[in-house]
Amino acid sequence: MNRSTPDKRQRLREHGDLCAAVHRQWQEGGYQHPPPRNPAYPDDLIGLACSAKTKAGTPCKLTSIYANGRCKWHGGCSTGPKTEAGKEQARINGRRGGRPKKPKS
């Protein structure tokens, strides 16, 4: 099994941060088209395995990973609702019984 070294993981995180910075700068500029291209992926990071822990307890071996360093199955947790409407909906969903039923017409 090919375990990735911590320095490669760190370089992968730095590359993801660089991609995020490029897109953040693009968004702040008013969404001019076409969108910017991500910086080139470093050659030594190509083929790096995801290495997230699977349900079986073994490391994931998928090598097609995103800029955040994880594969499509192990992308990370949800960041939750951002808008006030989304937060209110999450509060409603968390209540016992959920959303009140609409009256029948």
Q: How far apart are the first and last residues' alpha carbons, in Å?
A: 63 Å
Strand content: under 5%
Mean pLDDT across all amino acids: 76
Which stretches are low in confidence, meaning pLDDT under 50 for 5 or more residues running? none
Rg from Cα: 20 Å
Number of helices: 2
Global outline: flat
How is the main sheet built?
none
Global structural class = mainly alpha
Q: What's the SSE pattern? A: HH
Give the % helix: 25-40%
Number of DSSP strand runs: 0
Description:
The protein is mainly α and 105 residues long. The protein has helices at 6-28, 84-94. The protein is flat and about 65 Å long. The mean pLDDT is 76.
Task: Outline the secondary-structure elements.
Layout (H helix, E strand, L loop, with lengths): L5 H23 L55 H11 L11
List keywords for this structure.
mainly alpha, single chain, 105 residues, 2 helices, 32% helix
State the gist of this model:
By secondary structure, the protein is mainly alpha-helical. It has helices at 6-28, 84-94.
